Amino acid sequence: MLIDWDEMMPAGSLRAGAVRRFATGQRISVVYVGTDPQARFDGRPHRHPHEQWAVATAGPLSMTCDDSRFELSEGVSP
Fold first, then answer.
1. How far apart are CA 48 and CA 52, in angstroms?
2. CA-CA distance, 61 to 27, in Å (whole number)?
3. Structure confidence at residue 20 (pLDDT)
4. Mean pLDDT of 68-76
5. Residues 40-48: contacts with CB within 8 Å, 24+ apart?
6. Which domain of life is it from (predicted)?
7. Could you read off the pLDDT of 5-17 as tens digits, one per residue?
8. CA 14 → CA 11, 19, 33, 41, 44, distances in Å?
9. Does pLDDT of 1 surpass 70?
10. Measured between alpha carbons, how far is 34 from 52 in angstroms, rounded to an integer?
């Protein structure tokens, strides 16, 4: 299945400067999060009870998972 994220209706986001779009199926959901490059993350940690993947499609992305810090960039895996 191909997902045209531009055709998906944007949903509200918990973070200023970010927009979310969802694609769901019977056993999976995929969330696209677009963040304005000038947006500042508030630093509040949060948890998810399920596995998650992060894919950087443009620009750098820094994230912490448990006690590990990851620096991602477009097309590069940690």
1. 8
2. 27
3. 86
4. 81
5. 40/16, 41/15, 42/15, 42/16
6. Bacteria
7. 888 888 877 678 8
8. 10, 9, 11, 11, 11
9. no
10. 16
